[in-house]
Amino acid sequence: MTLDEVLGQLQPEDVPTEINFNAPEPGAFPPAFAPTGGKDNPHKPFVFHLNEQDPFGVVEIMGKKHLSVNFTAVVDVNGTERKINFQRANTFKNDRMNNSSIGDLIRSLDLQEVYEQNRQETGDFNQAIVRTLQQADARAAGLADFGWTVAFKGANVVYKTNASKSRKRNRPEGYDTEPWPRTADGTFKPTVADPATGEEKYGNLEITRFRIAKRDASATVGA
Question: How many helices (H) and strands (E) does the chain have?
Fold first, then answer.
């Protein structure tokens, strides 16, 4: 069969008229669920899992070192467990914050009594946090709002669904923050374009806010 005969068998509607050169890479997948926290998609319960490798570390913020934790939030999505990897919290707290993100994580997991016992036994703030979260691994459940985020290194900009306005970086090596683009009806667009190259990317799910657990609705550690 000649090439002309091959092409002659194809109907015009069978031939792609455009190639989207800025589409996400093949094999890239959209997030498991839409951003939460709104009326139509409220916050979600999650089960806390410490990272198997390097669950604890040190992060430097404003010239001071702070304890950090790396964990996975396991969320039920329509009957299927989905792992939301690469979640982080740390002990940094400024004067405008009631608690650090690790403090709010522990509160969300309803671990006050566990933490206070560990604080009494260890006599050390950081050791008590580490022991508390180790005991909670794969056993404690919390509540959180989730959002989408994607960072573009070349443009030094990060897009977040929970950002309400643009914010400039506070250090040269940092990232400018931009609100996630929306469609005409106000919903979040499925992808966002790299300002430098135009390449579209899906967002990564991340916890944007810990919700504080009710005393009678959380998992029990040590049961």
Answer: 4, 10
Query: 21 in a domain, yes or no?
Result: no
User: From the centroid of its chain, how far is CA 76?
Assistant: 15
105, part of any domain: yes
pLDDT (tens, 9 = 90+) of the chain, 223 residues, equals 888 877 777 776 655 667 767 767 777 789 999 999 766 777 899 999 999 999 999 999 888 999 999 999 999 999 999 999 999 999 999 999 999 999 999 999 999 999 999 999 999 999 999 999 999 999 999 999 999 999 999 899 999 999 999 999 887 778 999 999 999 999 999 999 999 999 999 999 999 999 986 654 444 444 4
Please indicate, yes or no, if residue 217 is contained in any of the structural domains.
no
pTM of structure: 0.83
**Total count of domains within the chain:** 1
Residue 222 lies in a domain: no
Domain hosting residue 176, numbered range: 36-211
Q: Do residues 205 and 32 lie in contact, with contact meaning Cβ atoms separated by under 8 Å?
A: yes
Q: Are 141 and 125 in contact (CB under 8 A)?
A: no
Q: Please state, as a whole number, how many other Cβ atoms lie within 10 Å of the Cβ of residue 55.
A: 17
The count of other CB atoms within 10 Å of the CB of residue 103 is 18
